[in-house]
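Hi R.,

As promised, here are both runs. First protein below:
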Amino acid sequence: MNNAFVSLSLLSTAIFSGATFAQCNADFTSIYTIQGTAKSSALQGQQLSTRGVVTAQIYLGSKAAGITLRAIEQGNAQASASLFIADTNAATAYQPGQLLQISGIVTELHSQTSLIDISDITVCDTGLSVTAREVQLPLTSMNEWEKLEGELIQFSQTLTVNDTYDLGRYGEVILADKRLMVATEIMQPGKNAAALTEQQRLHTVVVDDGLYQQNPDPLQFGGKTLTAENTLRVGDTVQNVQGVVVQDDRGYRVVPTRTPVYIASNPRPENPAAKPAKALRIASFNVLNFFNGTDQTPSFPTRRGADTLAEFERQQAKTVTALAALDADVIGLLEVENNGYGAKSALASLTTALNKVATKPYRFIITSEQPGNDVIKVALLYRPATVGVEGKAAMLFNKPFDWGSRPPLAQSFRHLASNELVTVSINHFKSKGSCPKDRSTKNADQHDGQGCWNALRTTSAQALSDWLKTQPTGVKTNKQIILGDLNAYRMEDPVQALRDENWQYLHNKDTEQYSFVYRGRSGSLDHALASPELAKQLKTLQHWTINADEPTALDYNLEFKSNDQQQQLYAPNPYRSSDHDPLIATFEF
């Protein structure tokens, strides 16, 4: 039996035998009975009386405020011993350690078994010991959360931040006992990968800020305020987590009853090391819907990116800072607005802004045809001071690049320091979202961990490899590199299809690689694969972790932020300039 239950069980013997219970000798229904072992109570709608020790006051100051009671008698170990009392007056009138007998109506309040419409509360005793129930991740079953509903729990283990996506909107952080990787980042797709994805749920817990409000201001974590300089990153660690397990329509979470201690275990990375003078550096960066809206009236809101000119200027400033710090000779860009190459285009705007701060100016490759019909395109920047353009800019528009996967762009460059010819291909395959309506098609989710459109992405990889073998730029070279957002994790079919064609996967063997965080899992959607001849010359490969680990609240957007937060959460630095991390490959010949 859990220590918390032992201590309270022993207390009950003395309490029931004392005169204190003279005023609490009425019949009551045990909390265990109210909770039951099903997901909802069998006693819903019934008016009844129950008894328990106050363990916590939660959501104080909100319309959802209440207290939690824990039974002092022993009961069914498969049922929760605690119950939420939804009453704003009780939330402030009663303290942890008080033994109460309460009458009310049983209901499922946002999926949590609760007592509402409180009609009578009697204080039976005070000063009782309240001990949090010890819980350790991973759980043995997701059903454990139902048994913990309403319980005061604590984690003695150090936990790791795995996701901060909802920190800004809801004050929530996903924690786990370790950093969780996307299953298909570390193992082959299939039943085992799907099983690992399900099993990883046992390793996570959502910790709430206890405010019961959207867009909290200020944004607090561990007693600190989130700002552009004071961040909370995925990979940071957390201690002293104690709180009440609450269930709502979005799942289970822990509402802290004491302040968690957040430790900056994953500090922000510095700028990439300066490129050696005679090296060739090639990078790719998904710039997250960089739109300036010049081909529409009015220009804002854009179709995908900034909603206002002010947002665009904030986005551009962060993006430029990140691009300049890459110190790359060639940069492949993804998710640039497909509005041409003219002076008012998004690509021209970005390049002009970049050249105001870059140590060596950039130009962009211009294709002879429009880069597909999608609203976004891929693009290439290069530094004429270090590389020269050779051959033609080539794009592939045939299937499967006529829809879904964006047409790839290839351009050959001569590295001026070594005179080597290198062909760079920048790519953006179809995402896993917007699944086909026909679930019988091969592009539907096969439940193997690869999501939707895997067949299209795999066909795209095969077609890309075949195309590059034809030397589409008109320049013959055995040094080629495939870069970009393939929307596939490392062990998935599209990446494997390229490796099967002898493309060498470039990675840093000394570090765990990831470029993206989604729903509390980390993995690489952005990849670099090179021909064997070029792969031999690789000096370093780096995912510059400036974005995926950072809270979305620190991006350029203005919505859902107070006037103060619009200033405090923003800085024209590279952190959270996008949702993807840049990829940097440095070669020495």
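And here is the second one, sequence first, then its structure tokens:
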Amino acid sequence: MSTATSPLRPLVLLHGWGLSAAVWKPLLGHLQPQRAVHLPDLPGHGNAAPAGETLASWADALLPALPDDGVLVGWSLGAQLALELAQRHPEKVARLVLIGASPRFTMCEDWPHGLSGATLDDFRAQFDSAPEATQRRFVALQSLGDRARKQVANTLTDSLTPADSSHHAALANGLRLLAETDLRPRLSRIAQPARLLHGSEDKLMPVTAAEWLAGQLPGGRLSVFGQSGHAPFLSRPADCAGLIEGFADE
């Protein structure tokens, strides 16, 4: 889905933890066919080689997939990578669309908008001993609260990166990044306009995290989808596509 002559800004879609670029398939059918769309797998996910252990090293590994003047559409961990890319390589990023996003996934004394540290620690410990069961649990949490819960869960399940020996270390490191990353101190470095999309019933990242984040980013605007969970682009693909493309070409 690309063209060398399209005047439309290209999109780069960055998926979340444990999945692959296949998760975007329901959204793709609602995007203009003449728009260039880039679908990289995150490091160590899908068919992508692993990268280092830091969010910065993952972002740098994604850099070759970024076209000039592109719009990064990041979901969940992919949203954190989009924010990292925007401040590390601003010349490559024109705009940001952040879905189910938060600058920090775990709660702390000055951040009530996330999962408890104990919950993510439990995920990490379970992943070491029962990775497939952990992925199923994560899928259930991401689809919880969505009006199309079964459909969302099925798409997520079909898009999982296998938790086999070739992917296990990278997936475990991704969970560590979710547990430890805090982008709040660096948000002031981001100059690109941002649009945020969030499900009102998101049980992984509360909408209050997106409300706070929208207030910290240039021209940050938040659209909340009722009866949607952590992946509104799966249950409301046409609505999300319209907002993404409208913002991309402003």
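A quick note on the second one: The chain has one domain: 11-248. Let me know what you think.

Best,
J.
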